[in-house]
């Protein structure tokens, strides 16, 4: 990936010759910057003109020239930081006896200030929705408390913390009947999950032994098995409520089911193809690779009308089977490419050794390559799972019955309802619906962080 | 041990595939025959099943086809042992052919028809009328239709209706039964074959067939181009381009700031800034609809504190575009940030040390080392990001649904509609009148644009070279 050649043979004859870049090339970044700045100014002027004469809303607490105060606050904060940096620099120099640059310390402090503001802007919306989920007054759409002395309440920036209840969540579980064995399964799964988290904490902060690792693996297996059993054996008949929101748990179950099966299918279909692309040399391989790459550029929903017609004609209109089949067509090409890249990174000597010992190609693949590719298969599964969980357009078109809806479609029905938009229920449902994916994401963070660049290059 | 007699020479199937272009074509031919024969057998078997069990679902064809493939594959192996290489690809190929290539072919086909909700190829249940079957079960008599003769009512191609189809129902009009027509005279339809004893006939209707209309759909698109195609195309490109630039700039700044090893607590910042990426977009985009509300949204409440009047985020064509870019920034910057950090960690620290010894300032280090080296890993990310956002239907549909309305536009192509959502509206939203054919024509245009984008992509990312390895 790095451009620097490593061996002398990569160098051009005569080694590197430094060439002064042409004037145009040197000016290009500045030209682009200038164009961007001009575009931004034009856009800003258009927006300001658009805002001319707009009334302030009666439902919003308004502070005249509030931005001046905000700027003053930033200035004051920077001033305080300048002082503390000076202090820190002096103390640090006295303690370590080395020269510390004042600019570097101040730079770090200002970076902290900037990052804290960014984190606030990025994360506060989520926190706000989380609190709104516990607020029974539809608080995403409530008037602020104009009389309150606290400015955070007066402006409505802070939801009222004293009225919190689980009313919104109760609506999601209205009329849901859960038999005892499901409760038991959920209990077992929850207990294993707790054990797993505890063990991970222990592993991070204490000593990590083989026994601990084995227990962790088992706990993870129990969690997955319990969850799979719950998802597979939950039926629509358990949801006796009349409203859409009482079927929310069912939609979570539907989404987990569809995403899980699609993830497994993605592994099944792409591993053999990826292995063949990486290791087998046969006429047509290059053409097939190109075909797969091109196919990957065309998301299934481009041919939405045809997919819809095809699946309804097959009698798979309002079924999970139809949806999963439609997803699987789009899942193959990308994952094949990923798996091919992984197999190419494995040393070929292992497979050669197996073949020398008399294993066939297929045996080599099953007994040597597959056991080594657990990590990448987990990545393929998770990537497909999360991608499918967040898919909306196909699910929206293909699934017409409430009992088949996925989470995204269900949430959409809360906010675009004909007579009322249920923002409180929406907030609660969003919280519950996003939790599994957030947990997966943070649990397997390393897979995604590692996958971004390599995946991006391989794409 | 010596052989005195040679064994009889027999042409054994070889393990070595035929080389070159011939090999490719031969393999493709064998595979397509294999898949084609499986499809035919599956089709025949499912037809038979439907005859025996009238209620059998249509997807039996898939099951039979798969079973046939399972039987035929070993047979093919016996004939051509070298084809095993291709069997590794077969499962993936079958799925791609069935659920990606076939829909594309169908889309191209529909783009030249008048397929729509009204011409759907299904029985027209709205124009159902009473019908009486004769005793020999060969003729059906319909009542007088007002102002229409029978051929018009049945929408036949020929005036005698030969080769047409009539749909017969029982009393409850539950199961349609299609029957070919031989001829019509007056109000009587002569059928090509007698109706089976099991079918009771009380009602009849026509089939709303769709037919080929040549380039009419494209004429419609380009005829109204100034009201739909051009503005929508322009916004699609502007959206995809500016969103990727904005996200990349934000990600770069944050990534460079967070890669600073001296910075305390940078893992905390990273973990927190991941959060927008971890929440499924289908949920968080809908959440932003509430937060961007003009009267009650938290965004305007915050701006109110800063002394800014209530902004019509989703209610004004210009502001709606801005809010789409902002939400996409919120969704996308963690990815760009992570990509920056991973790319930075691949840059050798020696370079910076050398630069420092040569007296380069921090800014010079960034512009002369960091950014040029980041370019190699960022080019493919930016290009694939452009291609992704070009068809990023989800954020448009969930945030603004293409709205707000704008004067002088088609009702299916409003101020924030991108090409894909325009096609979706045409096919599946009431204002588009279920015009599937027009939507397919739009999809065909998107195909070609996507193809062009991906060609540029691959050229720039060096995919062709990598695939040739």
TrEMBL record, chain A:
Belongs to the binding-protein-dependent transport system permease family. MalFG subfamily. One of its GO terms (molecular function) is ABC-type maltose transporter activity. One of its GO terms (cellular component) is plasma membrane. It is found in: Cell membrane. The keyword Membrane applies. CDD domains: TM_PBP2. Keywords: Cell membrane, Membrane, Sugar transport, Transmembrane, Transmembrane helix, Transport. Residues 252-444 form the ABC transmembrane type-1 domain. GO terms for biological process: maltodextrin transmembrane transport. This is Sugar ABC transporter permease. It holds the Pfam family BPD_transp_1. InterPro entries: BP-dep_ABC_trans_perm, MetI-like, MetI-like_sf. Its main location: membrane. It is a multi-pass membrane protein. The chain crosses the membrane at residues 27-47, 67-89, 110-134, 181-206, 218-236, 256-277, 289-308, 320-343, 364-386, 392-411, 423-444. Gene3D superfamilies: MetI-like.
Automatic annotation (TrEMBL), chain B:
InterPro entries: MalF_N, MetI-like, MetI-like_sf. GO terms for molecular function: ABC-type maltose transporter activity. One of its GO terms (cellular component) is maltose transport complex. Keywords: Cell membrane, Membrane, Sugar transport, Transmembrane, Transmembrane helix, Transport. The chain crosses the membrane at residues 21-44, 56-75, 87-112, 232-259, 271-292, 436-458. Signal peptide: none annotated. One of its GO terms (biological process) is maltodextrin transmembrane transport. It is found in: Cell membrane. Pfam families: BPD_transp_1 (PF00528). It comes from the Bacteria. Residues 233-457 form the ABC transmembrane type-1 domain. Its main location: membrane. It is a multi-pass membrane protein. Part of the ABC transporter complex MalEFGK involved in maltose/maltodextrin import. Probably responsible for the translocation of the substrate across the membrane. Belongs to the binding-protein-dependent transport system permease family. MalFG subfamily. This is Maltose/maltodextrin transport system permease protein. It comes from Deinococcus indicus. The lineage of its organism: Bacteria, Thermotogati, Deinococcota, Deinococci, Deinococcales.
């Amino acid at each position: 990936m790095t451009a620097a050649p490593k061996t002398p043979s990569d160098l051009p004859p005569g080694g590197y010759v430094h060439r002064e870049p042409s004037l145009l090339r040197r000016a290009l970044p500045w030209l682009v910057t200038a164009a961007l700045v001009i575009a931004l100014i034009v856009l800003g002027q258009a927006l300001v003109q658009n805002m001319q004469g707009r009334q302030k809303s009666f439902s919003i607490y308004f502070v005249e020239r509030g931005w001046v105060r905000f700027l003053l606050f930033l200035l004051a904060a920077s001033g305080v930081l300048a002082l503390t940096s000076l202090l820190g620099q002096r103390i640090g120099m006295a303690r370590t006896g080395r020269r510390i640059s004042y600019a570097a310390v101040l730079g770090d402090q200002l970076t902290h200030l900037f990052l804290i503001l960014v984190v606030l802007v990025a994360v506060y919306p989520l926190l706000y929705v989380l609190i709104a989920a516990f607020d029974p007054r539809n608080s995403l759409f409530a008037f602020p408390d104009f009389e309150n002395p606290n400015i955070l309440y007066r402006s409505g920036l802070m939801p009222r913390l004293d009225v919190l209840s689980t009313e919104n969540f109760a609506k999601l579980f209205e009329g849901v009947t859960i038999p005892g064995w499901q409760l038991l399964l959920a209990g077992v799964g929850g207990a294993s999950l707790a054990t797993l988290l505890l063990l991970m904490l222990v592993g991070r902060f204490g000593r990590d032994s083989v026994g601990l690792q084995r227990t962790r693996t088992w706990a993870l297996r129990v969690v997955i098995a319990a969850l799979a059993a719950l998802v597979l054996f939950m039926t629509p008949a358990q949801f006796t409520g009349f409203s859409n929101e009482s079927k929310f748990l069912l939609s979570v179950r539907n989404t987990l089911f569809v995403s899980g099966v699609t993830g497994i299918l993605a592994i099944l279909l792409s591993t053999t193809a990826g292995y063949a692309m990486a290791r087998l040399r046969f006429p047509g391989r290059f053409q097939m690779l190109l075909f797969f790459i091109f196919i990957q550029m065309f998301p299934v929903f481009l041919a939405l009308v045809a997919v819809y017609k095809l699946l309804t004609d097959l009698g798979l209109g309002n079924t999970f089977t139809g949806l999963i089949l439609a997803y699987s067509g789009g899942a193959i090409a990308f994952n094949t490419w990923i798996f091919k890249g992984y197999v190419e990174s494995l040393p070929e000597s292992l497979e050669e050794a197996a073949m020398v010992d008399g294993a066939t190609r297929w045996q080599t693949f099953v007994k040597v390559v597959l056991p080594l590719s657990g990590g990448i298969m987990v990545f393929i599964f998770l990537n497909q799972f999360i991608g499918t969980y967040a898919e909306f357009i196909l699910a929206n078109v293909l699934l017409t019955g409430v009992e088949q809806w996925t989470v995204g479609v269900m949430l959409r029905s809360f906010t675009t309802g004909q007579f009322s938009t249920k923002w409180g229920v929406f907030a609660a449902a969003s919280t519950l619906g996003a939790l599994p994916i957030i947990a997966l994401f943070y649990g397997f963070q390393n897979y995604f962080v590692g996958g971004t660049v390599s995946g991006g290059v391989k794409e | 041990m010596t052989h005195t007699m040679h064994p009889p020479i027999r042409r054994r199937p070889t393990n070595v595939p035929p080389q070159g272009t011939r090999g490719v074509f031969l393999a493709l031919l064998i595979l397509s025959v294999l898949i084609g024969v499986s499809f035919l057998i599956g089709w025949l078997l499912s037809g038979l099943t439907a005859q025996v069990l009238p209620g059998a679902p249509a997807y039996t064809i898939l099951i039979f086809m798969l079973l046939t493939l399972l039987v035929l594959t070993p047979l093919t192996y016996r004939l051509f042992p070298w084809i095993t290489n291709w069997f590794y690809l077969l499962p993936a190929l079958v799925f791609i052919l069935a659920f990606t290539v076939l829909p594309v072919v169908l889309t191209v086909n529909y783009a030249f028809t008048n397929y729509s909700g009204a011409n759907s190829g299904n029985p027209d249940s709205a124009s159902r009328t009473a019908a009486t079957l004769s005793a020999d079960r060969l003729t059906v008599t319909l009542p007088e239709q007002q102002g229409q003769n029978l051929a018009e009512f049945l929408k036949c191609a020929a005036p005698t209706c030969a080769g047409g189809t009539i749909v017969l129902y029982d009393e409850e009009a539950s199961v349609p039964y299609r029957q070919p027509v031989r001829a019509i005279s007056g109000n009587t339809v002569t059928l090509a074959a007698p109706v089976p004893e099991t079918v009771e006939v009380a009602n009849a209707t026509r089939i709303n067939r769709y037919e080929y209309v040549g380039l009419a759909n494209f004429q419609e698109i380009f005829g109204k181009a100034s009201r739909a195609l051009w503005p929508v195309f322009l916004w699609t490109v502007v959206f995809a381009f500016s969103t990727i630039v904005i996200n990349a700039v934000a990600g770069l700044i944050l990534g460079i700031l967070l890669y600073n090893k001296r910075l305390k607590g940078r893992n905390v910042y990273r973990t927190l800034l991941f959060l927008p990426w971890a929440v499924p977009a289908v949920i968080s985009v809908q959440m932003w609809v509430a937060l961007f509300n003009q009267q009650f949204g938290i965004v305007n409440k915050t701006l109110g504190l800063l002394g800014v009047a209530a902004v019509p985020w989703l209610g004004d064509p210009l502001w709606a575009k801005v809010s789409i870019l902002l939400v996409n920034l919120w969704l996308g910057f963690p990815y760009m940030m992570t990509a920056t950090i991973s790319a930075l960690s691949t840059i050798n620290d020696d370079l910076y040390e050398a630069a420092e010894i040569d007296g380069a300032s921090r800014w010079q280090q960034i512009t002369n080392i960091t950014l040029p080296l980041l370019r190699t890993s960022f080019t493919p990310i930016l290009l694939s990001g452009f291609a992704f956002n070009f068809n990023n239907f989800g954020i448009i549909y969930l945030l603004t649904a293409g709205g707000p309305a704008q004067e002088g536009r088609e009702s299916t192509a409003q101020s924030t509609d991108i090409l894909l959502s325009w096609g979706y509206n045409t096919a599946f939203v009431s204002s588009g009148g279920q015009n599937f054919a027009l939507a397919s024509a739009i999809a065909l245009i998107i195909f070609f644009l996507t193809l062009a984008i991906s060609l540029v992509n691959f050229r720039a990312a060096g995919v062709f070279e990598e695939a040739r390895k």
